[in-house]
Amino acid sequence: MEIGQRERECLKRSIEAAGYTAEDTVVARFIRFYELLIEKNKVMNLTAITEYKDVVDKHFVDSLLVKGAFDELIKDGMKLPDISRARIADMGTGAGFPGIPLKICNPDADIVLMDSLRKRIDFINEVAGELDLKGLTAVHGRGEDLGRDKMYREGFDLVVSRAVASLAVLAEYCLPLLKKDGYFVAYKSGEVEEEVKNAAVALKVLGGDRAVIKKMALPGTDIVRSFVLVKKIKPTTSKYPRKAGVPAKSPIK
Questions:
Q1: Which among 208, 227, 205 is positioned nearest to 218, based on CA atoms?
Q2: Topology of the domain comprising 63-249
Q3: Would you say the pTM of this structure is higher than 0.85?
């Protein structure tokens, strides 16, 4: 579709509703990202969401909404990493969510996007080059292997993930990547209390504190995003993550 002024204004308002300043360069990068995503999606299954407004709401704004969650929690007295300057890992990034939107709006953040499918990593590198996103790295690998790699293990202030997996499984991929006092943030949908309860043992075993749940409505929609935040309070033992395939087949209980 042709992206006209109306669509640009819609995007600008949506970015601002998520808590960011929507400068012209920011809007232009998001539009180009949308174009690249839709073009590549014709030959590769990157997303089932393709309508412009849906991509803006359900991919772009959804990715950015973590800032609003952080802002509200900080007001309540929680000490959280500064997203704008943090070293962030995006585990199981898929087509680049939430990592690429976060990078566009946080140019000083150092963001590493991780995925197990080489074709997705190639796409992300293409986007990073096209959008001139310096300080963004795309890494091909499984979470179990990256969590043991000295280059990444316990090297991040913040690890985020929109990947579809249970919290206990995601925690085994993500907590080993965190520095002590860093935060793991899982993007979840709807009611997550039972899932969080079931992951309590895994979080403790992996060095995490009790999870905090923060729910945020996507601006202008009735969609609710549940952010699950876990602070890392001690190093992850060398036993974890376990070898490839084991966390998903046998989550820590």
A1: 227
A2: Rossmann fold (3.40.50)
A3: yes
